[in-house]
Design brief:
two-stranded antiparallel sheet, 1 helix, TonB-dependent receptor
Length: 83
């Protein structure tokens, strides 16, 4: 019998305020999470995602997005990242 290709345990802990994601924590064992998925937990804050009054995301601390602005149709217009 061949061993499993990936041997890992992942734990997801997402925090919501209503239907808006506020914080994400992914932990696990086995392979490093950076090898398993695109998500990078760059910060550990109480609130990591921020929204405007129209429920558009305006800041994403895990992706180092410092500002997202929207046009009158609520479509993304500009995105600023911290480098």
């Amino acid at each position: 019998m061949l061993p499993p290709l990936f041997s890992q345990t992942l734990y997801y802990n997402d925090t919501y305020a209503g239907n808006q994601l506020v914080k994400t924590e992914y932990t696990g064992s086995g392979l490093a999470l950076s090898q398993l998925m695109d998500f990078k937990n760059n910060v550990n804050l109480t609130a990591e995602y921020f929204y405007d009054k129209n429920a558009n995301q305006i800041k994403n601390c895990n992706k180092i997005v410092t500002e997202i602005s929207y046009n009158v149709l609520n479509l993304p217009q500009t995105l600023k990242e911290y480098h």
